[in-house]
Amino acid sequence: MKRRLLISTALAWAALSACAESPARPQFPHSPPITYERIGSLMQVSVVDRTTGRELPIYRHRGEYWVAGRPGTRYAIRARNAMGERVMAVMSVDGVNVVTGEIAGVLQNGYVFSGGERTDITGWRKSDSQIAAFEFTSIANSYASRTGRPDDVGVIGVAMFRERVPVPPPPPIVLPRRDDSSSSSREMERRSEAPSAVAEAAPAAPAAKARSADSALGAESAASAKGGLARQSPPAPSLGTAHGRRETSHVGHTTFERAQSTPDEVVRIRYDSRENLIAAGVIPVPPPPPRWPRPEGPSAFPGSEMGYVPDPPARY
Q1: Would residue 8 count as lying in a domain?
Q2: Could you report the per-residue pLDDT of 106-115, keeping only the tens digit for each?
Q3: Cβ neighbours of residue 39 closer than 8 Å, sequence gap 6 or more
Q4: Is 215 helix (H, G, I), strand (E, B) or coil?
Q5: pLDDT value, residue 290
Q6: Predicted TM-score (pTM) of this structure
């Protein structure tokens, strides 16, 4: 009987503890949306914490995507080609091309993904067989700052290009043979000369257009490098990406011709410490638990001590 009583008492205490935690958690209707899905349509992009192997939650705030990092944590840019064709991805971290180390531009070298391929880009490319790991760190210790380029620290970018599909040449024009007068022969010669003249003049317009597009992109890249582009000036982030330890990572070489000189899609993800994102309102802060007012009149549970019913004091 004693054993059963102790078990019943333990169960009662457990039930009482459960009742104390029963109030529902408050909802946050004004919290920014959180997504665990990857961003992008041509290529789905996310940021992975390599310590845990999990993709970091992405917060959307005022039209921008954010992830929270921790100093000293190695991370990777995870990308999956959502297309059935090859796609080229030019990647940048803190405004620096992750393959070449140059100030990032969309017409630079990048990684080519086969249809449906998924890969984790884990660091700065040092050679065909090595990288220096991406690692969250302070701004001063970031690779961009240590190489004199601190203006764009705190952002990850991926510019995606589709591949140009070769267009087969048109079939040759075969003119019927005619043995009429010499005037008819001269007329046929004039007709046969006309298509060739048009064919020689046609490439001039696209070439001029390509040159003008290249010059415009070059001017835009130069203006971006000098900070001349019109853009918002958010507060400087507290985290950057370090030039971490060397790791083995093998790549090969291939040829890729862009379908156009401008990206088909660009993904931009900003990052900072969790504390700074909370302070900036990117990550919502849960309100303190509600304090229940004491009811008027006698209280049903004025004390909080648990035990057994004691004897009343002796009468006088």
Answers
A1: no
A2: 999 999 999 9
A3: 45, 46, 58, 65, 267, 269
A4: helix
A5: 76
A6: 0.62
